[in-house]
Amino acid sequence: MIARIWNGYATNANAPAYESLLQEKIIPSIEQKNISGFKGLQLLKRDLGNETAFTTIMWFESMDAVKQFAGEDFETAHVPAESQAILSRFDGRSVHCELRYDNLAKQHC
Q1: Rounded to whole angstroms, how far apart are CA atoms 59 and 84?
Q2: How far apart are CA 83 and CA 101, in angstroms?
Q3: Pairing of strands 95-98, 2-11
Q4: Chain segment 28-85, per-residue pLDDT in tens
Q5: Is the pLDDT of residue 108 over 60?
Q6: Which of 42, 45, 64, 82 could be joined to 57 by an S-S link, Cβ 3.0–4.6 Å?
Q7: Could you tell me which of 76, 70, 91, 83 has the C-alpha nearest to residue 19?
Q8: d(CA 51, CA 9)
Q9: Element (H, E) at 34
Q10: Alpha carbon of 61 to those of 17, 80, 85, 93, 99: distances in Å?
Q11: For domain 2-107, which CATH number applies: 3.30.70.100, 1.10.10.10, 3.90.1300.10, 3.30.1240.10?
């Protein structure tokens, strides 16, 4: 499994609007693409005091599945204009990590 990790940052005033945009529009649009090998997405939120950080972790079966989603330049972040208008800053590139150990499944059974 491959994790595609990306970070975006919003002012505290804009954080609720960005979270709503993610949950109501962006995440559903990703899920509706029915990308072969896409396993799911997690959204993390962190209060940094003067801003709010959002981390998305998208899970894929393989790098081929990542490339199906992101294209050959798969590290380039795909940040819609709507998101760019709300965010104060964001990563221009996504990080990809191979999952080597996962005990969450055991804990949820």
Answers
A1: 23
A2: 32
A3: antiparallel
A4: 999 999 899 999 999 999 999 999 999 999 999 999 999 999 988 999 998 999 999 9
A5: no
A6: 42
A7: 83
A8: 7
A9: none
A10: 31, 24, 32, 20, 10
A11: 3.30.70.100
Q: Max CA-CA distance within the chain?
A: 41
Tell me the C-alpha distance between 94 and 41, whole Å: 14
Residue 28, sorted as left (phi over 0), alpha (psi -120 to 50) or beta, turns out to be alpha
Residue whose entry in the numeric block shows the structure tokens 């972790």: 57
Is 90 exceeded by the pLDDT of residue 93? Answer: yes
Whole-number Å distance between alpha carbons of 14 and 71: 30
